[in-house]
Amino acid sequence: MQTFEAQEQISHTSTKSYSRNDWQGGYKSLKQEFDYWIDDIEGQIPPELNGTLFRNGPGLLDINGQPIHHPFDGDGMISRITFSNGRAHFRNRFVRTAGYLEEQKAGKLLYRGVFGTQKPGGWLANAFDFKLKNIANTNIIYWGNKLLALWEAAEPHRLDPYTLETLGKEYFNGVLSEGEAFSAHPRFDPSCEFDDSKPCLVNFSIKPGLSTTFTIFELDTTGRIIRKHAHSVPGFAFIHDFAITPNYCIFFHNPVTFNPIPFVLGMRGAGECIKFQPNQPTRVIIIPRRILPQDKRKKVQILETQSGFVFHHANAFEQGNEIIIDSICYESLPEVEPESDFRQTDFDALKPGQLWRFHLNLQQQTVRRNLLESRCCEFPTLHPQKVGRSHRYLYIGAAHAPNGNAPLQAFLKMDLESGERQLWSAAPRGFASEPVFVPRPHSQKEDDGWVLALVYDASRDRSDVVILDARNFNQEPIARLHLKHHIPYGLHGNFTPEVFV
Q1: Average pLDDT in the 260-277 region?
Q2: pTM of the complete model
Q3: Which of 41, 71, 190, 492 fits as disulfide partner to 139, beta carbons 3.0 to 4.6 Å?
């Protein structure tokens, strides 16, 4: 494993920091479900680290040997790592969605996937079939004493946090209707100004078409939806994430078009029918979080900036007449090709995601931006008390080398005040995932805590739970918890101080 100085020396050589064969190892199904205490540990788990890390992602990359076309089409598998009194317990379980159970019983693909997975039988077997499987594979949150597996195109699935048993779909006491979307990227406001400074969860859904309807949901600490309002915006929108401030929700409306005909005729998945429009601007949509009847002058604002594609935002905050938002921006959308194999991705042919800061001037209706980090990076995280507020530190999954595009193999700590960068790398044979920042109990400093993440180790074909000291990445991890198996590359997850074992 490499610290910042060592990796900088390696990165200036002509050899890659990874082999594609090693990277491909993290894209195998994990069909077993485990339940055990983790005893193979390097270092020591901090005794004051108590709580549960939940992770979600596609656990199946095939159905009985029939490969899916894109990992985003894979059935959701929850991993739970519980920390308690210096020990750690692992459990994983698939979300028993209706589609998962049907396909496991049939032993074959029965559903088309959004990102190109087709049922056997060619286009005739797929034409005019619009029924999609709720795969519950994108995020997992614990809120209002409920554990919810999220997929942005439909309602959540509720799970038992101890056993990970699937309990059914969650409709929030009838506020959600059957099949209504509830995004996989909620934001947790640590101190909501509308609710006596109590925490709340803010989420959204989009219903795309010739115009797109944005619906904003806000949930109190009991899990009750206390605010819900919808807004129509012209044009087709393809949006995965958003950011919040105390007063606003901010969306980046990426410049894309959708041609439904190949999807309708069974020739392509819906995701393969989305095309990036490089000559069109990216639109920034700013929606007030609270709109009272007397606030008719409060309305949706739409600003424009140069073309780009954003999957994930790090954070946003208000500063005078501006909203500042830090986002991972790509030069264009990495499009899913019908005959492509995601395991054969040519990283050198793709532009990297980089961290940019956007200044949205609400008074002048202008946007300016500046590059914060040129290194290929994704999955930003920060101290949970800084969500929607000015922040100093960000933690991001990153490439090993400072230039070019590559798989994530490292974790980068960014000090936005001093400009200092710290990087811990798992190269050459380790591959990184989304980091999660966990504050130390009763800590007063923004970077006083730990960064938790899963790292796939190709040398052993197993995954590790890595615990890094968030104050100092220029050292080896505090602990590496060696699992008995690998975990396929996941998407998102969250930490709760609640202990489930």
Answers
A1: 91
A2: 0.95
A3: 492
